[in-house]
Write a structure and sequence with these properties.
By secondary structure, this protein is mainly alpha-helical. About 50% of the residues lie in helices and about 10% in strands. It has five helices and four strands, in the order H-H-E-E-H-H-H-E-E. The longest helix has 22 residues, at about 80-100. The chain starts with a helix and ends in a 6-residue tail after the last strand.
């Protein structure tokens, strides 16, 4: 996935990665009417597929992460398909922070981590990039 997103500096914010992957729902407005649609079909299908298919494994191996908690809450309310895409959207934001900060995934939130691009990102700084 890092190859598909390389160079990560072309994305100014995490929302741009989410949009590039096609995980942000389409919204069309005209004449005071707003239509909220599904996720776009013309986005990078490789990045979207990797993120969406990673959710079941992430839920299994990181049961206490914010991504897993969001998935579980949405799954009961909206169904597993919508919840999986929403969790993939959250995971894309985490991946963006990991790539921009050149950090690894950590099982616990970093101590003293301030709220920035991703709230509770579970990303801890390291000296090497994995």
């Amino acid at each position: 996935m890092a190859v598909e997103l390389d160079p990560i500096t072309r994305f100014p914010r995490a929302e741009h990665v989410v949009s590039y992957a096609g995980l942000a729902p389409v919204t069309r407005s005209s004449g005071g009417h707003t239509h909220h649609g599904s996720i776009p079909q013309g986005a990078n299908r490789w990045v979207r597929g990797a993120l969406v298919s990673a959710i079941p494994t992430h839920v299994r191996y990181a049961p206490t992460s914010p991504v897993t908690m969001a998935y579980e809450q949405l799954k009961t309310r909206l169904g597993w398909r919508v919840a999986r895409v929403a969790a993939a959207r959250k995971l894309a934001r985490v991946v963006y922070v990991m790539l921009t900060r050149r950090t690894r995934w950590c099982s616990a939130p970093a101590a003293g981590d301030v709220r920035d691009e991703v709230q509770n990102s579970h990303v801890a700084p390291t000296t090497s990039f994995c």
